[in-house]
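Anyone? Bumping this.
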Amino acid sequence: MQVNTMKCQHCEKPATFHITELTGNTPEELHLCEEHARMYLMQADQPEEPVPTIAGALAQHLKISQTAEELSSLDQESCPVCGITFYEFRHVGRLGCPHDYVHFEQELEPLIVNVHGSTAHVGKKPEQGSTDTDARTELIQLRKQMQDAIAKEDYEKASEMRDRINKINNE
Amino acid sequence: MSIDELAPKCGEWLKGSGPESDIVISSRIRLARNLADFPFIRKCSDTDRIEIENTLHKAVAKIDSWQERVEYVDVSDLSELDRQFLMERQLISREHSEGSGARSVAIDSSEQFSLMINEEDHLRIQVMQSGFDLHTSYDFIDQIDNLIEQNVNFAFHARLGYLTACPTNVGTGMRVSVMLHLPALVMTREIDRVLRSMTKINLAVRGLYGEGSQAMGDFYQISNQVTLGRSERDLIDQISEVVPVIIEYERNARAFLKQESRNELNDKVKRALGILNSAESISSEETMHLLSSVRMGVNLGILDNVQIPTINKLFIHTQPAHLQKLHGMELSSADRNAARAQHLRRSLQN
Ligand SMILES: [Zn+2]
Ligand SMILES: [Zn+2]
């Protein structure tokens, strides 16, 4: 049996990735080296964004730095504001609310360093108050409680929530 | 302005003017922003999405100088064809087109900017320009961002900057993309080497894809990967330094081809125009490849009876949704190929 003598379709390196593309009419076999496979997958995935596999990158990072138990308890950790679990974030690569950057600060840091090579913003700041907006996440919770109250037809509670939201908004 | 009125026109960014526009098709800057008092899209209820839309619509309506300029399109209410049309026109992204739930786009009448609402982030501001002048584009988008920000609270973290649904955009929330036409580097097979050097300096490179995700050859987009730890101006300076290097490589390759394989080059260019001028049926991919050769031929003075703006416009108008909108009806793939050939003959013969 031959072992891995196939060359990459785009260069002289050995093809270590064998991809079957199913998007066309007939399945297409691609044989690529690691570098070209990465280029191919980045292009095929999402035409807009250059870093599509963030969840994958993160999962990879976690695999080397955490034990299985550590990872499974981390996965169950959830944000008190939006309820997203770390497991959900790892799988979809999207966060649930601005407070996740505070709640999962430590867990996100290695990933952010990996992507950006930095941990601090040095660019533009909002003109009106360049301070943290985390206090406003209270509004996310109040709005959720209001929507829940409406769903349960508890209109008294809903209007109480509405008043509190308006009060914060007018401060 | 309705989508049907938009179809026969073409955006400012396709007019083929601006610095280096023989090689740089267009420059685009995008800012990702989220409202501080709402969850990110993934955790939004239907009510939240509607409220986000209302909040942003109100904030935009307060900008007096835009009253005549900006038009809303409710993306959730559009047919698949109309959504594809806006995507071909680069006014909305694939994610926005194929998403679900309340979402909309505000379109500037000259198509110099668009505001996608409820895309991956609550707001994506996008500025498009013909040719290569990122500093002017940044001044423009910065001003748009400031105008909207006067009326809303964007999620911001003292250390991490603007907060985005995906940590790959956090910080500036800015993605700068430059679309380059590099046919000579492709012909001389130097393209891989040139592009590989880009990824080493943290810039992403991707080919342009058409129907069925087959590469359309000679178009490449360069964009920044990093959004945190460098200022907007810094990121723009970096791309502004790198792109001229690629332009130089492409110019050298064109000069080389003109000198060393003049006959082959002339043949390739004139055949391309010949096919476009006379085909009875033609696919979108073949059209792209041939228009690419013709475009290079015009820029090298091999062809003088075709104008660059005409070709730039054809790149967009021969794409499936545009073709169907211009034709006024939905067409099968075979009918599209015939309609495309007819459209090309008409546009190139007068
Ligand atoms: Zn390879
Ligand atoms: Zn959250």
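Late reply, but here is one note on the structure posted above: Residues 1-66 of chain A form one domain.
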